[in-house]
Amino acid sequence: MTPEVWMLGIFGLLAVAFLAMERLFAAHPQPVFRTGFGADLIYAPLNVLARIVFNGTIALGYARLGHALLPSEWAGVLSTRPVWLQALVLLVVLDVLFYFMHRLKHRWHWWWRLHETHHSSVDLDFFSSVRFHPLEKILDRSIFLTPIFVLGPSDWTIVVWSCTDAFFGMFIHANVTWRIGWLKYVFVGPEMHRWHHVADPALRECNYGNNFSFCDWIFGTAYVSERDPAGFGLEDAAYPAESFARQFTHAFRPRAEPSREDSTRHPRAAPTASPPARRGPPEAVRS
To answer: What is the rounded CA–CA span in Å between residue 23 and residue 177?
Structure first.
């Protein structure tokens, strides 16, 4: 079987497993057919296709192109290493890049307009992880995968990385009671990522990590609490929660007055580069 077929099969098994876990260990009472489920049914095949094409076919192509075009001393720096080491280095390198890209998505207005689609879910579960504006996915994967050109990992390393990335994508959004304890200082868990999806924009600017949390702890953007957020989604009451087509076009709506939308309601657009102060319950753990 090709790497892409392996990825598709493993993605399917992960989805079935998380569907079962959410029924057995639900953190919040929530129907399967919750708000936005219909839209997510359209996002799901698009998301899987994007993962297969970008994390599979294009990533493999980047690695092979690097071997073909770069000088031998620069090409395939990982290719002779054991698969487990290649996968670990690939996960870490791409996660660091993702962290800074993710912060920019919350800072740059035009990028937030695409990224807000992912934040629009008012009910968080593993299936909500598929909700991404297609243009955002195309843009960020095109940038995100560029280190593979130099790293040159093997085909099976890319399969391991892609499936690990898919696992964390489902896990951190999952509606489960699980908390990862001290592992939160290394990995992102649901108890961290839920705060990234909180409806209050003053609390949302935290926990930008994808699979690993160490960048959040190092750069002061980590936030964990013993409590869960009161609600998820966006502060934009006009956001179309149920319609894929309207969500797609909503990204291109006329921009509101900068004094209100960018400076007051959206801390990500404030002129300072430092993360905004975040409010939270007294027992919160911060970096």
So the answer is: 11
- pLDDT at 49 exceeding the cut of 60: yes
Nearest to 104 by CA among 201, 27, 208, 1: 208
Q: Are 37 and 43 in contact (CB under 8 A)?
A: no
Q: With the CA atoms of 265, 169, 111 and 152 taken in that order, what torsion angle do they form, in degrees rounded to the nearest 10?
A: 150
Handedness of CA 75, 79, 85, 87 (dihedral sign): positive
CA gap 262, 54 in Å, rounded: 32
Amino acid identity for residue 206 in this structure: C
Distance CA(31)–CA(41), nearest Å, equals: 15
pLDDT at 265: 42
pLDDT band at 270 (very low <50, low <70, confident <90, very high): very low
CA distance linking residue 241 with residue 237, whole number of Å: 9
Q: What is the pLDDT of residue 71?
A: 87
CA 160 to chain CA mean position, Å: 17
pTM over 0.85: yes
Work out the end-to-end distance of the chain between its first and last CA atoms, rounded to an integer number of angstroms.
45
Letter for the amino acid at 165?
A: D
Average the pLDDT over 121-149 and give the result. Answer: 95
Contacts of 278 by beta carbon, 8 Å cutoff, 6+ apart: 202, 203, 205, 206, 223, 286
DSSP H or E stretch at residue 224: strand 223-224
